[in-house]
Write a structure and sequence with these properties.
By secondary structure, the protein is an all-beta fold. About 5% of the residues lie in helices and about 35% in strands.
Length: about 140
């Protein structure tokens, strides 16, 4: 095995195709004359006993760790913000998920506040008991 086959290269590109059932994508690499990768797995936090599903979108800016110097084998390690696509909250104390319909799940660790702003229905199902405890509950 030569050094190129043993090394890994960080490469940046844009998702051109995505297969949600396999959680794999193909990526266009501008630095490689817009060549398109083979199907690459998208890294997740858990995939065995717990499952973490967060899907990439077509045209999403991604970072890939590629085997050697090519575009055939590697893994998509995450999506990136860039000059055209900036963080929505941009606050070190806030962790949030913002969906393209405007729905948000926001936790502010400084304020100890969790907010869910949903554009549609919210369904909560429990096979067991449900306990709701608060110093005050307002129902509208």
């Amino acid at each position: 095995m030569n050094n190129a086959e043993q090394s890994a290269v960080m490469r940046y590109g844009y998702v051109s195709d995505y297969d949600a059932k396999r959680h794999m994508a193909r990526v266009v690499f501008p630095d490689k004359d817009n060549l398109v990768s083979d199907w690459l797995p998208v890294l997740v936090h858990n995939a065995l006993k717990n499952h973490d599903e967060a899907h990439v979108d077509i045209d999403e800016h991604v970072a890939c760790l590629m085997c050697g110097n090519g575009i055939e084998a590697g893994v998509i390690i995450g999506a990136l913000y860039d000059n055209e696509n900036k963080p929505v909250k941009a606050d070190n104390d806030i962790r949030s998920v913002t969906f393209n319909d405007g729905t948000e799940i926001i936790y502010d660790r400084k304020e100890h506040r969790l907010a869910i702003n949903c554009k549609g229905d919210i369904v909560i199902h429990a096979d067991g008991k449900m306990k709701l405890t608060a110093s005050r509950i307002d129902l509208n």
